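Project outcomes to date are best conveyed with an example. Our students and postdoctoral researchers have been running inverse folding experiments weekly, and each run begins with a structure described purely in tokens. The record below, which covers 197 residues, was selected by the lab manager from last quarter's runs and is presented without edits.
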């Protein structure tokens, strides 16, 4: 189990760098969708390189698999450990769905899986009922998961800041993608993936 734990912590560095970049990209939408797209085009020069993208996908799979492996067979009685386990399970599920959807969008639907692809489900009724909590909880789970690791070293009170920050960032990202902060409507080609003609 020590090896699995080391693998999980080691993979967290690579995955963490990408996730921070991804969150920064979504927060760029606070300045408008054009700012989001410009930021994405710049960082794609790095993470869309085949070798980097392949390593990133492997790291995500290893992170999810090692986290789920640590979860199995261990009973957690303390609330921090339970929250860390629950947030980790949600993150693994989210990554499975999210990465599969992006790869499907690129390979099968032949779409640029940019912000419009992500935001389409947030702007088409009734899919918002799924996608609003789906994205909100994903960002919140990330902050909770990292906050639990911090709380193990610094005490339970250290969890408050990450949880509050996670709720704020989640709310801002979802509101920006829904077009609630600045006018933004997903182009029809992306909406059509949800709307039956």
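After processing, the design step wrote out the following sequence:
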């Amino acid at each position: 189990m020590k090896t699995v734990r080391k693998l999980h912590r080691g993979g967290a560095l690579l995955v963490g760098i990408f996730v921070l970049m991804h969150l920064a990209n979504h927060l760029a939408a606070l300045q408008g969708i054009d700012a989001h797209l410009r930021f994405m085009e710049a960082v794609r020069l790095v993470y869309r390189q085949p070798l980097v993208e392949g390593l990133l996908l492997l790291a995500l799979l290893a992170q999810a698999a090692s986290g789920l492996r640590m979860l199995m067979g261990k009973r957690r009685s303390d609330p921090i450990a339970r929250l860390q386990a629950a947030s980790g399970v949600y993150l693994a599920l989210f990554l499975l769905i999210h990465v599969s959807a992006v790869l499907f969008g690129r390979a099968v639907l032949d779409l640029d899986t940019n912000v419009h692809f992500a935001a389409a489900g947030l702007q088409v009724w009734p899919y918002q009922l799924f996608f609003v909590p789906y994205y909100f909880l994903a960002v919140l789970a990330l902050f909770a998961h990292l906050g639990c690791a911090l709380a193990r070293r610094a005490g339970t009170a250290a969890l408050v800041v990450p949880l509050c920050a996670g709720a704020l960032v989640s709310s801002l990202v979802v509101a920006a993608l829904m077009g609630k902060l600045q006018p933004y409507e997903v182009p029809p080609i992306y909406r059509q993936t949800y709307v039956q003609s």
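The radius of gyration is 17 Å. The mean pLDDT is 89. The training component of this project remains on track.
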